């Protein structure tokens, strides 16, 4: 793949907690002018990052591609939570659906005009914060970091710091010559 190192650095920076098994999903956006999206899609199809990491490619405009990058096991755990399933039901996700069906619905929602704020659940944000963001239209949060916090501020601060350290560590390993494939596997 052309400039694999550059791609690995972008993915590490924007999705380190997901790639390292700390967070169920990330949403990096890549320029079609800089990266061959078809080749990248093939890497995921070939399990380049191992069987634990999956990706869905969502194009919202002609020159940029949103990638929903996810840890299959962590996402399944999030989606098995009854409160999460009841919440998602309100956005057209059937409670009986498996993970792939939920991802199909998410991709469908991402292609719609309005951005689906329930995506916070798929990104590993606490349900209380996702609900708070929607109810308050993104206003009146207690803390703004990786996401807007409406619930447990101290827990969110701890997670923000863990995610920052994870990104730093992964980017450092890539700078020392390790491949993302080796770091993630």
Written account of the structure:
The protein is an alpha+beta fold and 185 residues long. The protein is 51% helix and 14% strand. It has 9 helices and 6 strands, in the order αββαββαααααββαα. The protein has helices at 4-19, 37-45, 72-79, 82-89, 99-110, 119-122, 127-135, 153-175, 180-184, and strands at residues 25-26, 29-31, 53-61, 64-71, 143-144, 148-149. The strands form 2 sheets. Strands 1, 2, 3 and 4 form a 4-stranded antiparallel beta sheet that branches. The protein has a two-stranded antiparallel ribbon with strand order 5-6. β5 (143-144) and β6 form a beta hairpin. α1 (4-19) packs antiparallel against α8 (153-175). The mean pLDDT is 91.
């Amino acid at each position: 793949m052309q400039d694999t190192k550059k791609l690995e650095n972008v993915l590490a920076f924007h999705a380190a907690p997901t790639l390292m098994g700390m967070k169920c999903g990330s949403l990096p956006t890549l320029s079609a002018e800089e990266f061959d999206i078809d080749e990248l899609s093939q890497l995921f199809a070939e399990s380049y990052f191992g069987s634990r990491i999956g990706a869905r490619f969502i194009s919202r405009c002609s020159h940029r591609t949103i990638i929903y990058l996810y840890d299959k096991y962590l996402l399944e755990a999030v989606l098995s939570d009854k409160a999460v399933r009841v919440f998602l039901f309100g956005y057209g996700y059937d409670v009986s659906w498996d993970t792939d069906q939920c991802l199909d619905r998410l991709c469908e929602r991402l292609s719609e005009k309005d951005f689906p704020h329930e995506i916070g659940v798929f990104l590993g944000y606490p349900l209380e914060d996702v609900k708070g963001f929607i109810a308050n239209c993104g206003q009146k949060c207690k803390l703004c970091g990786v996401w807007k916090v409406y619930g447990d501020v101290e827990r969110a601060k701890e997670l923000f710091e863990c995610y920052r350290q994870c990104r730093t560590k992964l980017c450092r390993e890539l700078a020392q010559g390790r491949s993302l494939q080796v770091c993630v596997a």
